[in-house]
Design goal:
Elements: H1 2-8, H2 25-109, H3 114-164, H4 166-191, H5 207-220, H6 224-234, H7 240-257, H8 262-270, H9 272-277, H10 282-297, H11 301-311, H12 320-328, H13 349-365, H14 372-396, E1 438-440, E2 446-448, H15 449-455, E3 463-464, E4 471-472, E5 478-479
Helix pairs in contact: 1-14, 2-3, 2-4, 5-6, 7-8, 7-13, 8-10, 10-11, 10-13
Length: 482
């Protein structure tokens, strides 16, 4: 582990050294999450806009279809009226031709009655002509109204389509996506490094140690056969307990993934005393999870009560409060998500028990919870952006940082990847170094060696602690090792 961190990151520097603003992978993750959220938001807005446009278009098309049917019906009605009008006019002309000939004969035969007979036929002939003119005018008015209504419907349809303005909405959303995509590519180019050969130190690696790191990682990842082959080919001699530990662990984890906690419970009960000495409550956590699972999945709450009466009495003295909470959950059967204990039923409980079992097993067998190879790579990757910037600065100054014992910048490393304490002197505000180690005073306070030397006038007289009034000599102090 130590060699990997040294190869990839170097040593941490003093706080007073020049700082180059780090570019952490977390920043890239946040940028990618922001881009993903913005992309989802824009896509959701687009889907909503498209659905709204489809709905409006469906309404308009339905209205157009209905209007079209009405227009066709009115057109057919007008055609029928015209046909009836033509039939009536033709029949009237035929009737007018017959009476005229007979009337002529009668006029010729009886002249005295001509004056009285001429008035009646003239009135009868003028009446059909007036009816025809009125029907023709009505037909012209109906056709004109039909044309006006059609023109109004078409104009209203165009107005509504323009009011939707879907082209502008889609274009604006696509513009927002384009801006985000352009920023996304820039962030990738800014945060990801394609060539890291100049960042790594050209030190010769211990091949056997590298093979051991890889083999341990394979065991911890559950690739037992590959790890056995690696050990055989590289001639590694790992302790048998290391292999047996991870074989047993991955059998338990496989059962937990299938929601079967019985192998884990059997293992916890088998090692109850050892786990108790290490103050590990994995057995109670497993029983609690199984109780919660039964209470949530079983239709009869008495199944959970019977399980609790069987398993929880052993924990009444050590976990009385937690047992009371578990028994109170029965009162909220059927509405557990609205209960005060809903945090016990969250979806992450299986992931939490998965990690808890790994930690308990590794702690019991005294093997690392996290593989050394994974730790080295995580530390190196997190420090890579700052190291890359350091490389560009050192190249511009024509300096070789491979020969440095300490880097001129502070390398950003996550808290879980820091394993070595660093002492900062309360007097000089400097970090301790091998040449200036921390010194434990007689009173229990700690200062750096350079301050002790300065206060004692080069180790020649007694001096007083800078924090309290206790006096001592240099021989009464001790070097402190973390």
């Amino acid at each position: 582990m130590h060699f990997g961190v040294a190869v990839l990151t170097g040593k941490p520097s003093r706080e007073s050294a020049l700082r180059i603003p780090p570019c952490r992978p977390q920043k890239l993750n946040r940028v990618m999450q922001t881009l993903e959220e913005e992309n989802k938001r824009v896509l959701k807005k687009q889907r909503h806009c498209v659905a709204q446009i489809d709905r409006k278009l469906d309404e308009l098309l339905t209205q157009v279809e209905n209007t079209k049917k009405k227009l066709e019906e009115r057109q057919q009605e007008l055609c029928r009226k015209k046909n009836r009008h033509l039939a009536t006019s033709s029949a009237g002309e035929g009737e007018e031709g017959g009476p005229d000939s007979s009337n002529n004969e009668e006029t010729q035969a009886s002249a005295p009655t001509a004056s009285g007979g001429d008035e009646a036929p003239s009135d009868n002939a003028e009446a059909p002509c007036k009816n025809e003119d009125a029907e023709a005018k009505d037909d012209d008015v109906a056709v004109e109204e039909q044309d006006n209504e059609t023109e109004f419907i078409v104009r209203d349809f165009i107005r509504r389509v323009r009011h939707l303005n879907f082209e502008k909405n889609v274009a604006s959303d696509l513009k927002a996506i384009h801006v985000l995509l352009s920023k996304y590519s820039k962030q990738i180019d800014k945060n990801l490094c394609t060539d890291i050969t100049k960042v790594c130190r050209m030190n010769e690696l211990d091949q056997k140690l590298v093979c051991r790191l890889v083999a341990e990682y394979l065991y911890q990842d559950g690739q037992i056969e590959a790890a056995d082959a690696m050990c055989k080919e590289a001639g590694l001699d790992l302790p048998p307990t290391f292999r047996d530990c991870f074989i047993e662990l991955h059998q338990i984890l496989k059962a937990i993934k299938e929601r079967d906690m019985q192998p884990a419970l059997d293992w916890a009960r088998k090692h109850r005393k050892e786990l108790g000495r290490l103050d590990i409550d994995i057995e109670f956590e497993l029983i609690r999870l199984k109780y919660v699972d039964i209470l949530q999945s079983s239709p009869d709450m008495m199944d959970a009560v019977n399980f609790a009466n069987k398993e929880l009495p052993y924990f009444h003295q050590t976990h009385a409060e937690e047992v009371g909470v578990l028994m109170s959950c029965v009162l909220y059967k059927g509405k557990l998500e609205e209960s005060p204990y809903k945090k016990l039923f969250n979806d992450t409980r299986w992931d939490e028990i998965h990690d808890a079992v790994i930690r308990a097993c590794c702690c019991l067998r005294r093997v690392p919870y996290r593989s050394y190879l994974e730790t080295c790579l995580s530390a190196g990757v997190s420090a890579l952006p700052a190291m890359r910037k350091l490389m560009s600065v050192m190249d511009s100054k024509l300096a070789d940082w491979d020969s440095m014992e300490e880097l001129p910048v502070e390398i950003p490393i996550a808290k879980e990847l820091r394993f070595h304490n660093v002492f900062s002197c309360p007097v000089s505000k400097e970090e301790s170094t091998p040449e200036n180690p921390p010194i434990l005073l007689k009173c229990g306070h700690v200062i750096c060696h350079s301050c002790v030397k300065r206060f004692s006038y080069n180790m020649t007289r007694r001096f007083k602690c800078p924090t309290c009034p206790v006096e001592q000599t240099e021989s009464e102090t001790r070097q402190l090792f973390f």
